[in-house]
Fold each of these.
Amino acid sequence: MTDQTSILIIYTGGTIGMVQDPKSGTLKPLTFTNLYKYLPVLENFNYRFDFHTFNPLLDSSNMSPSFWIELAKVIEEKYESFDGFVVLHGSDTMAYTASALSFMLENLGKPVILTGSQLPIGMVRTDGRENFINSIEIAAAKEQDTPVVPEVAICFDNTLYRGNRTTKFNAENFDAFVSGNYPVLADVGVYIRYHNEHILNPKFKKLKVHKKLDENIAILKLFPGINQNIVKNTLTTPGLKAVILETFGAGNAPTVPWFLDLLKEAVDKGIILFNVTQCKGGKVEIGKYETSAGLGKIGVIGGYDITTESAVTKLMYLLGCGFPKEEVERLLQVSLRGEMTV
């Protein structure tokens, strides 16, 4: 490998890579053979670019753990040949993919920057060009020959976020993502201002890629008036290993006997119950209020300030590792990749 900075651009699908067919007017995927037509500024970078395009391309609504595994394999295969990676991805499930990659890529020491857009790159007002160019610059950034951002991150609307701390909260504005419980990693203006105190330290160990994810989990979102049958049917799903409880406020839930009894039955059967707040900011504090004290007594695990997206992928990762139940519950309360504040 030469001294020239090398970036692998991975196109998975999504709005950013769509251009308008001049004949039909419909949107079709961009081919990287004509990428420089839409982004001529790339020629100004003194970087070596290479491209990997998934076939077929995937709308992010069809994202799945099996695709995350294929994506992680590409990064593993190309890891030693490139200084950084930019993943073009649909924004709807980008926070899930970023969270999953953060757990799957153990000992990551290079930038993996996910980006996308709200408008296709072929449109005049697209936000895709700026997001793409910013992501490339961040993926290439080094200080003393060490990557500035050696972690999985999302670059969107002139802001860099830790990937496993993000949630998509807006379907129309360019500032589509929020990181309610963790500061941003960088702000992009005239200069890119990196907040090094919030960025993970680089890992100098060999990259270890985890390729087993267990999908036998469910999310139970609580709401006033939730039906007993709904809760029961969710908790008795065949093959179920873990349930994410999306609770109110600081981890609160109904105290009616039938609800707590059903949760206890599930715990007694070996199902892991992981308590995550519905709020975009703040954390679960089991026992702070009477309405959460009962959850702790029956063995529900508190998720601190983890996002639902990160909770889903962390559970899939831990269960996929084959750890016993007790070890999974312990690790759920440990910050493995900076995904929560303990």
Amino acid sequence: MAETTKAQLIAAAAALLDSGGQAGVTLRAVAERVGVSHNAPYRHFDDRSALLGAVAEEDFRRLQQLFEDAGGETESGAALRQACAAVIGYARRHPARYRLLFSDPGLPPDPGLREAAFACFLTLSRLVARCQTDGVLPEADTVGLSGLVYAAVHGAIDLELGGRASGAKGLGDIDATVALLFDLLRG
């Protein structure tokens, strides 16, 4: 099935983010990359912010799928570690898109974007709940514990992407940091 122009514009914006960061994403550059007129993006998006919001929404849905795929692991702790590894891998492969998802206050307050972001979090929260049921993580408020895991993983990623992580600070390796977090939570 042929990809719609809107989907092509979103994919082009994501590719431009990957190659040049947000500065490289203009509606004109996206149109050129897709091979449509410079006005064509305006038929689908009000402005650049709306286009970036569409990229973010799609990427939250991709992350949610990665979390769901990780949930297929038979052991709950392995499933949660795999989900964390998936978001770490995504951030390393797509740092500008990661920043768009988690650090861009300029994204539009779009209901679809909020829904995709929250659905992604809920998928992670279900993995945390499964770990709690299996005794891999402590009994606690599941949403609060999920928020703690989410914040710790994203904080470690942000430090690495920003060049502020170092072994001297105990943050030389995100994977080791996340493993330590789970070891501590297991008690």
Amino acid sequence: MDNSACYEKIKSAVRAADHPQPPDPDLFQPTSVMALFMFDSDPSLLFIQKADRAGYPWANQMAFPGGHVDEMDENPRATALRELNEEMGIASDNVRVMGSLGHFQTLNNKDIQAFAGVWNQKDDIRFDTYEIQRVFKIPFAHLAGVHREKGYAGRRPNIMELTYPYEDVIIWGVTAKIVHHLIEVVYTT
């Protein structure tokens, strides 16, 4: 499948699927992330590994770029694009947002609205090493393969079971929940 057909398939699946609904806004702090696709020979997703520093609550965790909704943000989508630019140096003009993947909650009362987008790769990635240790471009086929091998397809594994290993890192927690949902959406819609 060529890149434009792959993009259209993912975009159609994202827009057609049912996604997790928002929780009670009084109980959670709103945040947004961008599950950002890159299309080279095959689609990949962009992940960050948070910095390894003492006292940093997200030290070493794998995540999608994103952060807290600010009052100046027009909406959660704007938050995801702003954070992508602030964290990675990726301009919103170089990202096509496919749509929302819904809402995912963390154990520390954050509600993450995840968006799926595609980056044309016209920016050079620049990140602050105080917040981000490394950047990963993980093939979507690898993640889908792990999904199948671990028997995640068609079911919701509990948070302790749900992991996606890649090289020397493991995607877990709420990021793994977003990855799981995205794979289910793309391969079952």
